[in-house]
Design brief:
The protein is of the alpha/beta class. The chain contains 16 helices and 21 strands. The protein has 3 domains: about 150 residues, Alpha-D-Glucose-1,6-Bisphosphate, Chain A, domain 3; about 210 residues, Alpha-D-Glucose-1,6-Bisphosphate, Chain A, domain 3 (3-Layer(aba) Sandwich); about 90 residues, Alpha-D-phosphohexomutase, C-terminal domain (TATA-Binding Protein), CATH 3.30.310.50. The strands form 4 sheets. Strands 1-5-4-2-3-6 form a 6-stranded mixed sheet, sandwiched between helices. A 6-stranded antiparallel sheet has the order 16-21-20-19-18-17.
Length: about 475
């Protein structure tokens, strides 16, 4: 077994510790071996984010893919993950390899892989990639050429991914009404790859866009990590309140996740955003199709599904489950609790740029502010409340303790925040369904040494108690 593990969304590690050039080359060799074993031939897109040395890690990966006989399309600079994913489709490529740690802390970097649809590779494929990773120290098992040689002979070439992606956005949404609406929008890029993209798409009209955290800074000041949730978004929300913005559009470090702030500088949590996006597509655009959701996201989607007569499919956590389900069901929308949403007619991949554009279109079409849009949604599904705590695990013993404690629970004896548990779902982690229709989920993160405890309920007063009771169940 390889010491490199592909979790919920690829492999991530600490730069200079386990995330080294040697290990990136090993991971790339495993990916190349997987593509060969599955009979795939054609170009591979390679891109990167703005983290420390990300462009150099991307070059190392490109050298290995080219050395294994795959033509490489290398992005010329930091590129949003959804743009990289769409580039697979636009260039008839067979896969993508993306050097990014997304929302992880600044000391981390990552290695994402995507299939010929631009979507996440299913779990069985990730296991095959792991199996093909050569042992540490076996440099002879890695085929590679130099970047200079690849660029000289055409096996590696730079390409501009922007025109094709912008043309795709134009097919999915008419942005002219947004440009001419006269909105004031703060865009928090979280020092990431999304910088400049919304301004380019929406600039030139009456709407004003004010970008914050738009430069490259791998230390991510004013936040612990570029994850679009509080407290990381607090500085961006404060900027919106300071300038009297109509809303705050937020993207994580690689721009595949969407965060959102209202006209009062208040955060709209990611479960409510998913409810808004689904409602926008169903009620305003009149579209129909299956909704794919991870079991960690909102039950408001189940209520919308019943109202509009569409199927709702639940999956495990991560787009490695969501993307295949979206393809299988030709889904209208797919999403997860972390703020990642994918849309029909695009790629089965999260797109923070498009998600923010759809939210802005919702505002313009209705003439309503974000808080008023939420009230529209609640008028249909009722008000829902969500929160999450993350418990950092310092060693494997803590993980084993928590798992043992959770495995021995008797559901019939559990009460959470005063609500009796009626059902336990174990698709991915431990999801306790309560008598009010609310739920608590406890699961181990697939990307970090964290135990996550989440809840959504219609009982606002019970949120803190549910989370506290959930943590007590873990014993850590």
């Amino acid at each position: 077994m390889s010491d490199i593990r592909f979790g919920t969304d690829g492999w991530r590690g600490r730069i200079g510790d386990d995330y080294t050039y040697a290990n990136v080359r090993r991971a790339a060799q495993g990916f190349a071996a997987y593509l060969k074993a599955t009979g795939q031939q054609g170009p591979v897109v390679v891109g990167h984010d703005r983290r420390f040395s990300a462009e150099h890690f991307a070059a190392a990966a490109a050298e290995v893919m080219a050395g294994n006989g795959f033509p490489v399309l290398l992005t010329p600079g930091p590129t949003p993950t959804p743009v990289i994913s769409y580039s697979v489709k636009a260039n008839q490529a067979i896969a993508a390899l993306n050097i990014t740690a997304s929302h992880n802390p600044p000391e981390d970097c990552g290695f994402k892989v995507r299939d010929r649809n631009g979507g996440a590779i299913p779990p069985e494929g990730l296991k095959q990639i792991e199996a093909g990773i050569p042992p540490a120290g076996d440099a002879d098992a890695i085929a590679r050429i130099s970047l200079a040689q690849g660029l000289a002979d055409g096996r590696i070439r730079h390409f501009d991914p922007k025109p094709a992606y912008l043309a795709q956005i134009a097919r999915l949404i008419d942005v002219t009404p947004i440009k001419e609406a006269g909105l004031r929008i703060v865009v928090d890029n979280m020092w990431g790859n999304g910088a400049g993209w919304l301004t380019e798409i929406l600039g030139g009209g009456k709407t004003e866009l004010i970008e914050v955290h738009a430069e490259r800074n791998p230390l991510f000041p004013e936040m612990s990590r570029p994850e679009p949730i509080p407290p990381n978004v607090d500085a961006g929300l404060a900027a919106g309140k300071r300038v009297g913005a109509d809303c705050v559009c937020i993207m994580d470090g690689d721009a595949d996740r969407c965060g959102f702030g209202d006209e009062n500088g208040e955060f709209v949590d990611q479960l409510r955003v998913y409810g808004l996006l689904a409602y926008y597509l169903l009620a305003l655009r009149g579209e129909r199709g299956t909704i794919v959701k991870t079991l960690s996201t909102t039950s408001m989607l189940d209520k919308l599904g019943k109202k509009y007569g569409v199927t709702v499919v639940n999956t495990g956590v991560g787009f490695k489950y969501v993307a295949p389900a979206m393809i299988e069901h030709d889904a209208l929308i797919g999403g997860e609790e972390s703020g990642g949403y994918a849309f029909h007619g695009h790629v089965p991949e999260r797109d923070g740029i498009l998600a923010n554009l759809y939210l802005l279109d919702f505002m313009v079409r209705t003439g309503k502010k974000p808080s008023e849009l939420l009230q529209m949604l609640f008028d249909v599904v009722g008000e829902h409340f969500y929160d999450r705590i993350d418990i950092r695990l310092t060693d494997m013993a803590q993980r084993a303790t928590a798992k043992a404690n959770l495995d021995k629970l008797d559901v019939r004896q559990i009460s959470l925040g005063g609500h009796k548990v009626t059902e336990l779902v174990t698709i991915d982690g431990y999801k306790f369904v309560m008598d009010d229709g609310g739920w608590l989920l406890i699961r181990f993160s697939g990307t970090e040494p964290l135990l996550r405890v989440y809840t959504e309920t219609t009982d606002k007063a019970a949120v803190a108690g549910i989370l506290a009771d959930g943590r007590r169940l873990t014993g850590v």
